[in-house]
Amino acid sequence: MDISRTTLLRWAEALGGSARTGLGFTKSLYEIERFEEILKIASEIRSCAQISGLGIDPESSGDEIFDHWLQSVGDGIPGYVTPKSAIATIVGNEKGEILLIQRSDSGIWLYPTGWADVGYSPSEVATKEVKEETGIDIEVVRVLAIIDGMRRGYTAVPLYSTMFYCRSIGGELKAHPLECRDVGWFSRNNLPSPMVRPESWIPMAFRAIDGIIDETHFDTVRTPFWREE
After folding, report:
1. Where are the bilayer-spanning segments (predicted)?
2. C-beta of residue 39 within 8 angstroms of C-beta of residue 70
3. Is the peptide bond before 158 cis (omega within 30 degrees of 0)?
4. Which end of the chain is more exposed for a tag (fewer CB within 10 A), N or C?
C-alpha cells in the first residue's frame, strides 16, 4: 500500500522519541547501542518524509537528523520525550465575528496560537498570546478542543494543542510586527484565504461564537492506534 508522508513522519517521530527517552534513562551499554540503532533508523525514515519541523530542515539527511536528535537527549526525567504543548484561541466579538491572524512565516490565516510558556497556566498563555499577536483583550470562557496536531497533519512535530473559546472584552487591533502580517475580524461569509483546513475547525468555532455549547472535542481512539486514516 502507499504510505503518506504524514504517516512516515508519525512513525519516525514515535520511534525517535522512544529511542531518545530510552537513551535518557538507560545506563546499559548494550541498550545504548540498541537505542542508537533505532534512532538511526528513525532518522532515515524522517529524512524520507521530507517535512519541515522544529530545528530540522526538510532537506536534512538521515545523518544530520540523527545528530540533531542525539544532541537533544537528556538525562532521566528531563530526557523523557513528550509532545510539545500549544495554546490556540477562538475569539469572538459582539458582532459574531472571529479574530484571525495572518502568520508572518507562511501567509496562512489562522486563529491566534502559540507555544505553552513555562510559568503560565494555559488560560494565561491564551490571554497573553492574543494580546501580543492582535492587541485584543479577552475573557477565556471554556475549552473547545484538545487535538493532536501531527495526527491531523497540521504540524510536522509531535504537538498537542489546547483550544479555548474566548470573548473579546476590549483592546484595538494591532498585528505583532514579527509574528503576524495582518490581523482582523471576519464574519463566516467573509473569511480570508489561504487558511489551514477551515472545514475542520470553522464550524466548531462559529458554533461557540453563536453561544452553542458542545462537549469538548478530542481525537477519537483509533483501532489499532497506528492505522492509516
Report:
1. none
2. yes
3. no
4. N
Q: How far apart are CA 113 and CA 42, in angstroms?
A: 29
Contact present, 138 and 94 (Cβ < 8 Å): no
- What is the maximal distance between C-alpha atoms in the chain? 64
Q: Which amino acid is at 137?
A: D
Q: Take residue 100 and report the three cell numbers written for it.
A: 484571525
**pLDDT at residue 54, rounded to an integer:** 43
Which residue's C-alpha cell is 494591532? Answer: 174
Please report where in the chains the cell 532521566 appears, as a residue.
76
* Residue 76 φ/ψ region, left for φ over 0, alpha for ψ in the -120 to 50 degree band, beta for the rest: left
Amino acid at 133: E
Span 157-210, pLDDT tens digits: 889 999 999 999 999 999 999 889 999 999 999 999 999 889 989 999 999 999
**Residue 49 identity (one-letter amino acid):** A
DSSP codes, 88-102? EEEEE-TTS-EEEEE
What does residue 34 show for φ and ψ, rounded to 5 degrees?
A: -65, -45
Which residue do the cell numbers 505553552 mark? Answer: 116
Q: How many CB atoms sit inside 10 A of residue 26's CB?
A: 13
Q: What is the pTM of this model?
A: 0.80
| Cα 210 to the center of its chain, rounded Å | 26
β partners of residue 56: 53
